[in-house]
Design brief:
23 strands, single chain, nine-stranded antiparallel β-sheet, 3 domains, Glucose Permease (Domain IIA)
């Protein structure tokens, strides 16, 4: 088949002469995780390879979203080379209306899924105290969707690119993402992906297996990754035209970033930087391929900010809009392949509704034992994900990398939906879908005696033994993080990370932090500092 007009527009910068060196230097291919090794700096003690890491986890869903009955894998229709069609961009109807004129010098905004007053204020260059709304809410509390907010108009000029692009659910590994039959899509596409294989950590993997791996580990939607490969290189329906293009399905053309796995890992990172940076209010502008910048429009949702951030990294401003929004752009192709994303998202409901809370969780080791807090809140998976993970290490007198005889235990009851590459994902609502409800990720568990997929475990059940499995690690430890409806959850904010009453707080460094309970404080440390020791109540 011939992908024809689905191929990417040419950049004014030659991709071979502008290999995104600054971008990739900032991102790196390694992400960090603090480890219990003597005399290590908490910020630099360990690097976890993005090509070896894995994420997982689940918790009972306090407010279940729309859930389909289990069914067959989502298979493609009879595929032919898709003709681009204009994207059907949504007109969002808020759930609340404000029947009053908007005063001069103010903007009217309706809150969206996952919004907090602090993040909204940051988007609009305002202070939380300047926002006017009909509810009395804490600035870190999740806002009800559709809440009308009057905000000072502090923008000297209207930011460019106000068009919504994708709903949050189409960025994330959300409901039903795991049921996409990638093998069938790729086989019917009959392009270069159909015969593609690559060795990942010594294992020969097909294109479908690689896309699925990057999707589930990074919690990124596999539909999005597959469509991006087709749009940028045409690999789903056709074959590379130049010899050097056989290594670059997305086209970063960066040293040491070659092949499907590496380029999709960087893609997931850029999507995450945009999505979570916007969600948390820490990102306010796009940086284009030529290093020019533009403010992000304050009314966008996190999903639109995520895909805009990726396309800004790939294109110069003169090509950006057509590449993403144009009639032959990515959104047109995406809609052609997978249907209307906003209609699909509407069936799923609000991903981050107001009023949700973390279920009760225990420390991830057995009662009566003392472990060390080796890292405070740090990146959940790789660069671009929020500071949502904590690291713990057994206090057994052993040092460096070893297979601990001590068990990591379940912080709550749930269903094991993933157990591979050092990771265990525990689905707390038990529906078997890693994209719904609360999920807990345990990382660095050795293959020996690790709990199997499909196992239902009760709280405190053994999951596996801490080790250095699943990443480049200088010391045995356990990494634990949370997801809700496919979204990585920051340790601080509207859904604080609390284990047996110990609440996590982030330090200034990327791995520093504390656990605090009833006035008692445990300080993270990569060394065997007694202040980092935490005992679980019998």
């Amino acid at each position: 088949m011939n992908s024809g007009s689905t191929r990417k527009p040419e950049s004014t910068l030659s991709p071979r002469k502008a290999p995104l060196l600054l971008l990739l230097a900032a991102l790196g291919l390694l992400s960090g995780c603090n480890l219990p090794s003597a005399a290590l700096n908490p910020a630099t003690s360990t690097l976890i390879s993005a090509r070896q890491t894995q994420a997982a986890g689940t918790y009972p869903s306090p407010t279940p979203i729309f859930r389909e009955e289990p069914g067959p894998l989502q298979t493609p229709p009879s595929l032919t080379s898709p003709e681009p069609v204009p994207p059907q961009l949504p007109v969002l109807t808020p759930t609340a209306t404000l029947e009053m004129p908007v005063p001069e010098g103010m903007r009217l905004y309706y809150s969206q899924s996952g919004d907090t007053l602090a993040a909204v204020a940051s988007h609009f260059l305002a202070r939380p105290s300047e926002l006017q709304l009909p509810l009395a809410l804490d600035e870190q509390e999740l806002l009800p969707v559709g809440t009308p907010i009057l905000i000072p108009d502090n923008f000297p000029a209207e930011p460019a690119y106000p068009q919504l692009a994708l709903p949050d659910a189409d960025i994330l590994f959300s409901q039903g993402s795991g049921s996409l039959d990638l093998e069938a899509w790729i086989e019917q596409g009959a392009g270069y992906l159909a015969g593609y294989h690559q060795y990942i950590s010594g294992q020969r993997m097909s294109a479908a297996e690689i896309i699925r791996l990057v999707a589930v580990e990074n919690s990124i939607n596999p539909r999005l990754l597959l469509a991006l490969v087709e749009y940028r290189s045409g690999w789903l329906f056709s074959f590379p035209q130049e010899l050097e293009d056989y290594q670059y399905p997305i086209g970063y053309y960066a040293p040491k970033v070659t092949g499907l796995y590496d380029e999709l890992t960087v893609t997931a990172r850029l999507l995450g930087q945009g999505y979570y940076g916007w969600r948390l209010g820490t990102l306010d502008h796009l940086t284009f391929r030529d290093d020019s910048e533009a403010p992000i429009h304050p009314a966008l949702n996190a999903g639109s900010a995520g895909i805009q951030n990726l396309f800004a990294a790939l294109y110069t401003p003169d090509l950006f809009w057509d590449a993403l929004y144009g009639q032959q752009g990515f959104l047109a192709l995406y809609t052609r392949l997978f249907g209307e994303p906003w209609a699909r998202a509407a069936l799923q409901g609000t991903l981050m509704p107001a009023g949700i809370s973390q279920p009760a969780l225990s420390l991830p080791f057995l009662p009566g034992l003392t472990w060390g807090l080796t890292s405070g809140p740090h990146i959940s998976w790789q660069a671009g994900t929020p500071r949502g993970a904590l690291d713990f290490a057994p206090r057994t007198g052993e040092r460096g990398c070893y297979l601990s005889s001590t068990w990591a235990s379940a912080s709550a009851a749930g269903l094991v939906v993933r157990s591979q590459r050092g990771a265990v994902a525990l689905d707390l609502d038990g529906d078997g879908d890693e994209g719904t409800g609360w999920v807990l990720l345990y990382l660095h568990l050795a293959p020996e005696e690790r709990v199997a997929v499909g196992t239902w475990v009760e709280a405190d059940a053994p999951l596996g033994h801490p080790s250095c499995e699943g990443g480049v690690s200088t010391g045995t430890h356990l990494h634990i993080a949370r997801k809700y409806n496919g979204e990585w959850i920051a340790a601080e904010g509207p859904l604080p990370f609390i284990l047996d009453g110990w609440q996590a707080y982030a330090g200034v460094s990327g791995y520093g932090g504390w656990l605090i309970r009833n006035g008692e404080t445990v300080v993270s440390s990569a060394t065997r500092d007694s202040a980092s020791e935490i005992r679980r109540d019998p």
